[in-house]
Known about the structure:
Chain A has helices at residues 18-26, 28-34, 118-122, 125-139, 145-152, and strands at residues 8-14, 38-41, 49-54, 60-71, 75-82, 85-99, 102-110. Chain A is an alpha+beta fold.
Amino acid sequence: MTNARPDFVYTTYIKTTPEKLWGAITNPEFSRQYWGGHENVSDWKKGSDWKHADSKKGGDVRIIGKVLESNPPKRLVLTWADPSDTADESRVTFEIDNAGDMVRLNVIHGSFKPGSIMADKVVLGWPLVLSSLKSFLETGKAIDVMGVKAALNQSCDGEAAA
Amino acid sequence: MVAKDDKVFKALADASRRDLLDRLRKKNGQTLGELCERHDMSRQAVTKHLVLLEEANLVVTAKRGREKLHYLNPVPINEIYMRWIGKFERKQVQALHNLKQVLQEKDHD
């Protein structure tokens, strides 16, 4: 499994600190501000459950999983599945590194099961969420992630990343 | 910041480099060897193009064992999209794009 090819690797450089970036990913109050009202909730300890829930829709749970690795503020590895189809489980790794006066964020979404439909759902979502995260940390202003997704999805099936 | 945008546009201003991005979009995570297959360019030329794409953050690499795999990173392109397409134009732009796709498909028949 460790040699499996990750299907997507996304990288962005953000003018921030690793601690702030870690907080933006793991703190529900932060995450909902740039993730279209969706928040990441867990105690972020290895072995704990985590969930990605829509704070605007009464906490409707969109994604669930386990925390596989947690090394703040450097590395977080999660399993990732739709609660209505937990057999279609994949894996998301966040890597945070200093890069000069910027911080580099790598998001690796991989270990998709054969026949997984999750890859198609997230392919539009990650670049949007990462652009929104960058904008939020650098300027305080996030992108209307769900609005853009709604526009893009007119041509695509699936509701896109979480 | 300006210099970073310049790198993205320079990297995109070349048909061979756009072709490499197209090929990664079809199959993400390819080695240099795979990217050189079915390509008219020499290995050195492909390497040079990949360096420029990496500097523009349009391609990112990950080591898997002894292999270096190349991945399309669409985040800088998304930022260009966000910069010039306003919040209220996105639906219209997407609708035009869909119309164009449909019409072009019909032409092929």
